[in-house]
Amino acid sequence: MQQSREDIYQKNYNKNSVVVIGSGPCGILATKYLKDNNNVICIDNREDIGGQWHFDSENEEDHPNLQQNSFFHHYGALPSSLYENLQANIPKYLMTFKGFPSKAEYQEFMKAEEFQQYLQDYCAYHNLKQFMLFKTFVSSVKLVKNLNAEEINKVGFKINKKFLIEIKNAENYQENIRYLQADNVIVATGHYSVPNYPKIRDLQLFKGIQIHTHYFRQRHLKKFTGKHIAIYGTSMSAQDLLYILLKQTDQSLQPRKVSVIGNQMSIDRLRQSEAYKDEINCSKLSLSPTYIQKILDEKSLILESGEKVEDIDVILYATGYQYNFPFLENSIDNLIEFPAENERKNSCGPLYKRIFSVKEPNLIFLGLTFNTISIQQMFERQAIIAQRFIDKLITLPCQEDMLRDYQEDFKQSQSKFVDGRDYLKVSYFAGLNEIEYSKQLSDLAKMQLDEQFNKYIKDIYVPISINFLQKGNYPWMKQQQVSHLLPINYTPNEDLF
After folding, report:
1. Model's pTM, two decimal places?
2. Is the distance from CB of 161 to CB of 13 less than 8 angstroms?
3. d(CA 372, CA 365)
4. CATH architecture of the domain formed by 5-193+322-483
5. How crowded is the C-beta side of 463, counted as CA atoms within 13 Å?
6. What is the pLDDT of residues 406-449, one digit of tens each?
7. Sheet holding 300-303, edge to edge
């Protein structure tokens, strides 16, 4: 009988052992880089790899076993899944991993299913699924030194590692509860599963449909036909939904009107849009640079500017997500904290270089940063950092120095928002500059920066972003072609960071 990945992992406790939580892009990369020198197991509650790129047709609205589902029981939501026909926001050359180009026939801005297939091919090439355990939920991660006698006795084996990890059946939180131990834990769970809802006064008065982008699927388009939709928020998910509603959907199935409500800068960009010029001129698309003050009645609201938005059928929340780690939060270890001023849980710490828990550096977070242009390469760099630390090729500063570094970074992020919401924003245009952050990581990794890759960001993608995204022409951006400007089968240099 073939041994399971879990059995193999448990029998190799004599080696340095690493539990990776999540098999999205970050979990895949961590497994790839750590598998050669360590005893690794990558655990995911889904039946296959991909994280949010793994399409789930079911969500909270129609899941057949919602109340027993482990993820829902612990998070209060199901893991996010990108909806059908979604295209990436960056060209494919910025999404490829080192030494593994995307297929030439893939669209320049890959569809979600194309990138999911890219991840499948990458896993097959490196034979990574042999290190993975699916349909399994991680319910707690605790430091062994803080366990009480009762917790130790119920484990059933001798504990000689730093962490004790409780796992269970993904589809039933009460079934098949058992334990693993590890020297290192890598958290690669993503941060797009628990929807954030803004506080709106008198919200109970509204009688129409309310839906967060987290729940959106193509089937919702039928519910939106001929309706007035108020999109609250101007994030990339708002841009995607606006694109789908007014450009990808047949006119006979489109909403009657879309009102976008959000921050001044984003609304100003949309107001100058040539791509949406017709919709704006005929008032099918209305833009309001402010926030909702309160609900007035069952179909209308008033904005902070005093403007009324009336005859609304649907409020579509594009208001982001919260960082959540229930497997850590319900522990006396207190290894991760959320700033006291931050009701949204849109930041966390203390983290050294936005990766290592300052209180316990063997607890490593990958993929918390957001708004990066080089998103997949950023995550690959973080995975390399984790591997080089775990394999003892690099060392970290002392705890006092790491805490001081974090506090300085967090204080800098507070210069814009007092709750530090920009701390994990690593962007070419706002927050911590991603070229600067890449330099910090390359110095920590003791690896030379890939200047060619950074040049391709600055010379190829940044102009696209400025000319299209920042001028409100999001639909046109995804029609651009750039592969001809790059070497054939380009991927970032494997010898550089």
Report:
1. 0.96
2. yes
3. 16
4. 3-Layer(bba) Sandwich (3.50)
5. 7
6. 999 999 999 888 888 899 999 888 888 999 999 999 999 999 99
7. 292-297, 300-303, 308-309
